[in-house]
């Protein structure tokens, strides 16, 4: 329980944050027609990509650092509380089926643990010590990257995670939606997507949440492109774990090679269903064991393996 003085200090701090600002022009929004409220929200959301665009050089620099570390075995670890934490866990959970990553390569930590994904545990966000303990449980080290996510940029759990990770030698990224944030200052790569006050005062699951989702999409997707998880814009490392993904795998091989269906089916069968292996076998004119060897020697980069096959 915080004291009255601590509560007053926190209130004064929130009063300085753009994401917490009150918008008097929307004070009677509840009187408007539903379609008009929807138009206002849609207009608010339309401004988010432009705010992200101002941070593209910083986002790209962070991605290059992340990819460099992941190429030598490091992990990408998202850390946040509430909505920010849930967005990190969501992005991490999409990487295994999309890019065939191991579950421990991209990790999402949320204050309060997995239960906080569906049940509010907002009080957990106030502990820097909890963040340090969660990272220590993962054994964070120099090859890892820790991305702290916080709309306000002041959340103790996210700031504490970045500070602790930096002491452990990890690369650190701070993603917030306020300028001059403590989170960005604590990280080597500070990304501040300033989207302005929310439609509902302080409801940062709205524009701020959308901005964070857009940036996390870039971080994971472009990192995986840099790691050779794609061939052009095809997801050649997709994990065919269900019928839809198996159909997508066949379609990807078809788009990449233009081969007839029987040849695609044979290549996939010989390569244990691995899309990338099948493409290399067809385009490179090699058998499945040779395709596996060439991909291993090229660290999974299909273009490099194709060049080796055609040399």
UniProtKB/TrEMBL annotation:
Active-site residues, Swiss-Prot/TrEMBL: 94 (proton donor), 125
Keywords: Carbohydrate metabolism, Lyase
Protein's UniProt keywords contain Lyase: yes
Catalytic reaction list: N-acetyl-D-muramate 6-phosphate + H2O = N-acetyl-D-glucosamine 6-phosphate + (R)-lactate
Domain SIS: 66-229
Pathway(s) annotated for this protein in UniProt: Amino-sugar metabolism; N-acetylmuramate degradation
Keyword Lyase recorded: yes
A Pfam cross-reference name: GKRP_SIS_N
Gene3D superfamilies named in the record: 1.10.8.1080, Glucose-6-phosphate isomerase like protein, domain 1
GO molecular function: lyase activity
Tree of life domain: Bacteria
Annotated EC: 4.2.1.126
HAMAP family in alphabetical order: MurQ (MF_00068)
Subunit-level organization: Homodimer.
Annotated family: Belongs to the GCKR-like family. MurNAc-6-P etherase subfamily.
Free-text function comment from the UniProt entry: Specifically catalyzes the cleavage of the D-lactyl ether substituent of MurNAc 6-phosphate, producing GlcNAc 6-phosphate and D-lactate.
Further information: A lyase-type mechanism (elimination/hydration) is suggested for the cleavage of the lactyl ether bond of MurNAc 6-phosphate, with the formation of an alpha,beta-unsaturated aldehyde intermediate with (E)-stereochemistry, followed by the syn addition of water to give product.
Protein name in the entry: N-acetylmuramic acid 6-phosphate etherase
Species for this entry: Streptomyces milbemycinicus
């Amino acid at each position: 329980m915080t004291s009255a003085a601590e509560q007053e200090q926190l209130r004064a701090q929130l009063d300085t944050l753009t994401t917490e600002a009150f918008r008097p022009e929307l004070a009677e929004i509840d009187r408007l027609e539903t379609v008009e409220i929807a138009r206002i929200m849609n207009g608010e959301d339309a401004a988010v990509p432009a705010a992200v665009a101002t941070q593209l050089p910083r986002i790209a620099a962070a991605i290059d650092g992340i990819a460099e570390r992941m190429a030598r075995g490091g992990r990408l670890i998202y850390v946040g509380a509430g909505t920010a934490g849930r967005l990190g866990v969501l992005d991490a959970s999409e990487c295994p089926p999309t890019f065939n990553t191991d579950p421990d390569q991209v990790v999402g930590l949320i204050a309060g643990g997995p239960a906080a994904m569906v049940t509010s545990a907002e009080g957990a966000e106030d502990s820097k010590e909890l963040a340090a303990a969660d990272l220590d449980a993962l054994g964070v080290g120099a090859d890892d990257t820790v991305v702290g996510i916080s709309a306000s940029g002041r959340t103790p759990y996210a700031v504490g995670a970045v500070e602790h990770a930096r002491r452990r030698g990890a690369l650190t990224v701070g993603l917030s939606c306020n300028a001059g944030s403590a989170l960005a200052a604590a990280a080597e790569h500070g990304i501040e997507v300033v989207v302005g006050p929310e439609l509902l005062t302080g409801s940062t699951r709205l524009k701020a949440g959308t901005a964070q989702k857009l940036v996390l999409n870039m971080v994971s997707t472009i990192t995986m492109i840099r790691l050779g998880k794609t061939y052009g814009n095809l997801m050649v490392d997709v994990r065919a774990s269900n019928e839809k993904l198996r159909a997508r795998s066949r379609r990807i091989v078809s788009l990449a090679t233009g081969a007839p269906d029987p040849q695609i089916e044979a290549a996939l069968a010989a390569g244990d269903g691995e899309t990338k292996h099948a493409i290399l076998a067809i385009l490179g004119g090699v058998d499945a064991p040779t395709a596996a060897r060439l991909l291993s020697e090229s660290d999974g980069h299909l273009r490099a393996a194709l060049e080796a096959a055609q040399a």
